[in-house]
Design goal:
Distance between the termini: 54 Å
Oligomer: single chain
Shape: globular
Structural class: mainly alpha
Largest sheet: 2 strands, antiparallel
Strand content: 5-15%
Helix content: 40-55%
């Protein structure tokens, strides 16, 4: 069997954690918003954010490689592509998926414990954080608020042919520590995988608001 260099490069990009974490740290620090317009110098940003200017510069260089920011004569500024990571983009990146201090962002990081979940069948979230998702929300008003207000579409239903993998293992999503650990999935007509209804963001408050 031959090996394709393009496929190897694609797999390397998919597997690399550097890019995944660079985007998350950039969003958490608010860099796309801060660098709109004229942008700013790395040293100036570092002083504003109280972070290391050396490592922030490395982060900005990687963001440049990704096309999120671009260099200017005085520093860096957000590109049109990078503006998709701004708070007003309305795509859920800044308040849900990528922000490390949000409920969803914390849950995403539990994926680093996926090997543990596969080996044991146990949830990854408690292994990473010491308690389950709901206990985390109960202890932190900020996390609870970020969870309850994160999605403009609090309840999502999908009625279509269910993939065989979902029908065969409906609990996998609940056991690997992702935000779907807290989801409610109702599988309909599973004998022929004809349709599936999935309800996301199904916290107790959500259930009260959207019975």
């Amino acid at each position: 069997m031959g090996y394709n260099d393009n496929e190897t490069d694609a797999l390397r990009r998919m597997a690399g954690l550097a890019t995944l974490m660079t985007l998350r740290v950039a969003v958490t620090l608010g860099l796309p918003d801060r660098l709109l317009g004229d942008g700013a110098a790395a040293d100036q940003l570092a002083a504003e954010l109280n972070v290391s200017p050396v490592t922030l510069g490395i982060l900005l260089d990687h963001l440049t490689t990704l096309g999120v920011v671009e260099p200017t004569s005085t520093g860096y500024r957000t590109t049109e592509f990078g503006a998709n990571l701004c708070a007003d983009a309305g795509n859920g990146f800044t308040n849900m998926l990528l922000h490390l201090d949000s409920a969803a962002g914390r849950a995403e990081l539990a994926f680093v414990e996926l090997a543990y979940s596969i080996a044991t069948g146990r949830a990854a979230y408690p292994r990473r954080y010491g308690q389950d998702f709901w206990a985390d929300l109960a202890e932190s008003p900020y996390l609870r608020e970020s969870f309850e207000t994160a999605s403009p579409y609090p309840t999502v239903h999908a009625n279509r042919r269910a993939p065989e993998s979902i029908s065969a293992s409906p609990r996998m999503f609940a056991d690997i520590g992702h935000i779907l650990q807290t989801a409610s999935c109702e599988f309909l007509d599973r004998s022929d995988r004809r349709s599936v209804t999935v309800t996301l963001w199904n916290s107790p408050t959500r259930r009260a608001q959207h019975p």
